[in-house]
Amino acid sequence: MEVGVRIVGIILRVLNFLLAPLFWLCARNRMRIPPVTDSLLLRSATDIAEAIRKGELTSKEVVIKYITRLQEVNPLLNAVVDERYRDALNDASEVDRMISEARMKGGLEKLFADKPFLGVPCTIKESCSLAGLSNSVGCLEHAGRRAPEDGAAVRLVKKAGAIPLLVSNTPELCLGWETTNLLRGTTNNPYCLNRTAGGSSGGEAALLASGASPFSVASDIAGSIRIPAAFCGVYGHKPTPGIIPIEGHIPTLTDENYPKFLTVGPMTRFASDLAPLLKVMAGDKASLLELDKPVKIDQLKVYYMCEATSSVALLPVADCIQSAVAQAAHLLRDRGAALQAEKFTELEDSVEMSISVFFAMKDIPNMLQDPANPKQDKSLFLELLKVLFGGGTRSMQALGFALLKNSQLYIPQAALPKYRQKAARLRQMMTEKLGDTGVLLYPVHSSQAHLHRQVFLRASGVLYSMLLNVLGLPAAAVPLGTCRGLPVAVQVIAGPNQDRLCLAVAKELEKGFGGWRPAP
User: Which of 168, 201, 224, 460 is catalytic?
Assistant: First the structure.
């Protein structure tokens, strides 16, 4: 571990220890959202689609119940940025008319074959762009900006018959691991409102976990789907890059490596919804993933690691998360999978590899740029002071990202090429070892959902997710129950284009551990 990384890590660990009593005093109220009382809200998206097809439910009935739930929980969550409830009800009425007409003419099967999620409501991360709705992505200077058209993945979901209800909150330009910004405020975790929903897809994770959305269109560039999914106890899949189109996502970089790091993907409450949604969102490229090819658990090779490395500079992975990873591995072994003793020891340099590769991209948003004078950067120190005294135009999250970008954790410039080469070798090695029958079970983050603003002290935990974007490997966050009232999750990683292994393991773990559990 580089000296600069070690020093920063030690400072953060000391601050985390010293400030723990202050955070505890500020967050003794463990308020939660109202419980789900309508059984319809506990059904999977595919189940709802099937019920609509059979005539057991109408689309309008489903949309009304989800809007009612959203209006009940959002005042506590602060996850909704902009909504289209009236238009969604009109869309649902039109869907019900289409279904009635198709049923009379004998064309129902054809209708649902082309539109597998016909009449099912969904929610969209603001950065993924929903035409006509807010597209400011948490930036004060973009307040009032609206998306001129749907993002590419959103178009595919709508083409499959789904009805978007809203766009949800993110950090500024998705650059942060807590969903908060000066324009919309902070999104809360439904399991404990004093805790973070994660970021940058925290708005989607909070809504899903609350039973306020059947499924989500979200995005992941450094753990942005998986960390919120883990913190809120739902499923989130970061697909192999290049499969799901990212056109229309905000921000968009010109760097050729950007499409290798950013992925758009599904978030759901049920493992069974992941594959059908991935197939829809992948469009013409779905065949590359062979999602219909059966996966036999008893033919899987399962690697597992409870921690990347043990270092005084890194917060250790929480005991309950380490235990969950081991329990998941043993459950798969009991189902016939072959546990592998080998560990990927190269992951101990995850921080250095992630920073050196990620920040080599050009056009990364400059959060210190002065909108009034684009050629001049603001002072980071002065901006921090402004935020501390209730002013400024950037949130602490955005300024923290600027500090990380500018310092690159003090990794020597001469060492950066070495870590880029190491990342390339690790990708090749993991691709070869995992093959088309192997998965790695790994933490999503070193901790469960932490308290608001504690993200800066627990930043080292993102090393477990961020590197998978750099390596371009598919990975899914899978909930494994709760510990002390908060969700616990494991990350399932596979080789490129082997997403179906992640999804099959997610379904198997759902059977063994129960999957998503609504906040009590």
Answer: 224
